[in-house]
TrEMBL record:
Record: residues binding substrate: H117
InterPro entries in the record: AKR, Aldo/ket_reductase_CS, NAD(P)_OxRdtase_dom_sf, NADP_OxRdtase_dom
UniProt KW NADP keyword: yes
Residues annotated as the enzyme's active site: Y55 (proton donor)
Domain of life: Bacteria
Family of the protein in this entry: Belongs to the aldo/keto reductase family.
Name the UniProt record assigns to this protein: Oxidoreductase
Site entry (Lowers pKa of active site Tyr), positions: K84
Keywords from the UniProt entry: NADP, Oxidoreductase
Naturally occurring in which organism (per UniProt): Lactobacillus selangorensis
A single GO molecular function term of this UniProt record: oxidoreductase activity, acting on the CH-OH group of donors, NAD or NADP as acceptor
Residue span, NADP-dependent oxidoreductase domain: 32-264
Signal peptide: none
Length: 308
């Protein structure tokens, strides 16, 4: 498998579109950090970039895309760009009304993947209808969901005419979501891992450290390689150039069946600590999209420590 996989490898979604197996996540990144990280990632060969309106950094991501394309000579169609419907924008008409804003901030004329960020009760089915409309009009190449469990999916599919191509969920060695993965296989939907390193908790596991030492790799690299060999799309987040490069250095080794099995035994159904305390389901206050993007045209160069 190590000979077959590379940073440019892609999987085929249920609508025939090709999606890279690894990308860059930018949750919690500022505008400056997001721009630098995205530009760096594109220079390093990343093709998949994942953001969300909720992150408040779409404009920074767009700036990084432009700089990365200019630096590498790549074209827009070489990249796979994902963003997500903000909780406060959910509902049929509100989703349609606010979609263009994400495109404008990103500086794009289409998205490769548009996700419902969370299944907001009473709204996510209407939101999905809006995504189906955007998909039918060619404004997005693929549509999917994020943080949907089997109950939400069963409800959504009762009225959906398009099966979600992707469900982006929290996934790491301590939270392996086996039931959701099995469900996704049955309906031909890909699983994409957010927080693949378990919010940093998995990095301290001694069994993972022992496996990593055997391969001369870091624990993070072993986890990301495990994702790929588990047929999981992975989007590790970093704003540091060295870590972005290291996260992509996972294609020159292959985990043995024994090591894959050992990692599978680490599951604790344990969500990240920050996740438990964060009010993701309130579409306002700390989750609200902020106006920092309006200041982007006047933004200055990055602080030096962002580049370390």
């Amino acid at each position: 498998m190590s000979d077959e996989l590379s940073l440019s490898s892609k999987v085929t979604l249920n609508n025939g579109q090709k999606m890279p197996v690894e990308g860059l996540g930018v949750w919690k990144a500022t505008l400056h950090e997001a721009s630098f990280a995205v530009e760096t990632a594109i220079k390093d060969g990343y093709l998949l970039i994942d953001t969300a309106k909720q992150y408040g950094n779409e404009a920074g991501v767009g700036d990084g895309i432009r700089k990365g394309l200019a630096a590498t000579g790549k074209k827009r169609e070489d990249l796979f760009i994902t963003t997500k419907v903000f909780n406060g924008d959910q509902g049929y008409q509100k989703t349609l009304d606010n979609f263009q804003g994400s495109l404008d901030r990103l500086g794009l004329d289409y998205l490769d993947l548009y996700l419902i960020h969370w299944p907001v009760d009473g709204l996510y089915k209407e939101t999905w209808q809006a995504l189906e409309k955007l998909y039918s009009e060619g404004k997005v190449k693929s549509i999917g969901v994020s943080n949907f469990d089997q109950e939400h999916m069963d409800d959504l599919l009762q009225d959906a005419t398009v099966t979600p191509a992707v469900d982006q969920i929290e996934f790491n060695p301590l939270l392996q979501q086996e039931e959701m993965r099995d469900y996704a296989k049955k309906i031909d939907m890909k699983i994409e891992a957010w927080s693949p390193l378990g919010g940093g908790q998995a990095l301290n596991d001694p069994k993972l450290k022992k496996i990593a030492d055997q391969y001369g790799k870091s624990v993070a690299q072993v986890i990301l390689r495990w994702d790929l060999q588990s047929n999981i799309i992975t989007i590790p987040k970093s704003v540091h150039a060295q870590r972005i490069e290291q996260n992509a250095d996972i294609y020159d080794f292959e985990l043995s069946d024994d090591d894959m099995g050992a990692i599978s035994l680490l599951n604790q159904n344990k969500r990240s600590l920050w996740y438990q305390d964060f009010d993701w389901h309130t579409p306002h206050k700390q989750n609200a999209y902020h106006d920092e993007v309006d200041q982007w045209p006047d933004a200055k160069d990055f602080p030096v420590d962002y580049k370390k």
